[in-house]
């Protein structure tokens, strides 16, 4: 039977919602409105001269080959981060769910990376893979591979993907462990009695029942790859070599704070916000149909 809450007064629900509405208005709608307004203007670096240019900033963006190239870089980076982040977390969650003794210690160790700041994560992975002092790059050279993320574009992309996945997989791991623990053990035991092996039990019982969790994490990881990985890119590669790891959010920062193109940077932020909103709507509109609640 569906249970519904009835408030005695019509204003009480709005009072309860007011703190969250204020936070959303101040920290999302107000900055978004300011960015949209600035994207239609052109101003100098100090904001002393403002000129209304309409859609000229957007036209300039889509004639800029470096900006168009950042779309490809962002798409590649986001897909790799979302796929490997979710896949690695799911594998570790399945293993952790089967651990008997010391399960709490294993789970605690796997959660720790989430406490590391993104900039620190980028610096740590840069040190490990630095051509001159990195212990991992030294091991790779001994194995016959000349690793240099400062000069090789593929190596630089691999570096920031690994750092971003390592930073986020703890978050994914927590949700997958919670999802696995919510699956009735009787289903797993019944399948085992019927002769289903671990692999078959996972694909026919556990993974379908984890589809709501997987869908939620897919949305969160796509947003994470588009927005929250700026500090990793800035600390590890600074968009280099060249512009080969300059994802869209990093280009917004570089053009706005380094190149001092405030109008163009605001236009890029509007485009980036529209892309993320569009991807989220697409996922809820089409991908969610395959989710089994």
Write up this protein.
71% of the residues lie in helices and 2% in strands. It is mostly helical. Strands 1-2 form a two-stranded antiparallel ribbon. A hairpin with a 6-residue loop joins β1 (41-43) and β2. The longest helix is centred in the N-terminal third of the chain and has 34 residues, at 65-98. The mean pLDDT is 89.
Q: Key terms for this structure?
A:
293 residues, mainly alpha, two-stranded antiparallel sheet
Provide a concise account of the structure shown.
By secondary structure, this protein is an all-alpha fold.
Uncertain runs are none
Spatial order of the strands in the main sheet? 1-2
Task: Sum up the overall morphology in one term.
Answer: globular
- Global structural class: mainly alpha
In which range does the helix fraction lie?
over 70%
- Would you list the SSEs in sequence order as H and E? HEEHHHHHHHHHHHH
Strand content: under 5%
Strand count, sense and barrel status of the largest sheet are: 2 strands, antiparallel
- What is the rounded Rg? 23 Å
Task: Please tally the β strands and state the result.
Answer: 2
Number of helices: 13
């Amino acid at each position: 039977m569906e249970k519904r809450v009835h408030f005695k007064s019509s204003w009480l629900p709005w009072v309860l919602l007011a703190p969250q509405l204020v936070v959303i208005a101040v920290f999302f709608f107000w900055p978004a409105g300011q960015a949209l307004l600035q994207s239609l203007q052109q101003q100098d670096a100090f904001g002393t001269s403002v000129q209304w240019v309409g859609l000229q900033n957007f036209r300039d963006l889509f004639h800029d080959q470096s900006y168009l190239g950042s779309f490809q870089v962002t798409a590649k980076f986001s897909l790799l981060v979302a796929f490997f982040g979710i896949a690695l977390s799911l594998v570790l969650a399945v293993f952790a769910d089967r651990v008997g003794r010391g399960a709490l210690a294993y789970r605690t160790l796997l959660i720790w990376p989430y406490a590391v700041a993104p900039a620190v994560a980028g610096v740590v992975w840069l040190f490990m893979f630095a051509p001159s002092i990195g212990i991992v790059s030294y091991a790779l050279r001994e194995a016959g591979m000349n690793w240099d993320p400062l000069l090789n574009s593929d190596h630089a992309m691999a570096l920031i993907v690994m750092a971003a996945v390592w930073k986020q997989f703890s978050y994914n791991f927590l949700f997958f462990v919670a999802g696995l623990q919510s699956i009735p053990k009787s289903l797993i035991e019944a399948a085992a009695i019927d002769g289903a092996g671990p692999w078959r039990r996972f694909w026919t019982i556990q993974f379908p029942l984890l589809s709501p969790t997987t869908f939620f994490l897919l949305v969160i990881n796509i947003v994470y790859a588009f927005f929250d990985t700026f500090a990793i890119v800035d600390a590890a590669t600074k968009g280099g070599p060249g512009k080969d790891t300059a994802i869209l959010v990093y280009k917004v920062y570089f053009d706005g704070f380094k190149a001092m193109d405030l109008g163009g940077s605001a236009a890029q932020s509007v485009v980036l916000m529209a892309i993320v909103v569009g991807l989220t709507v697409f996922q809820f509109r089409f991908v969610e149909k395959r989710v089994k609640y």
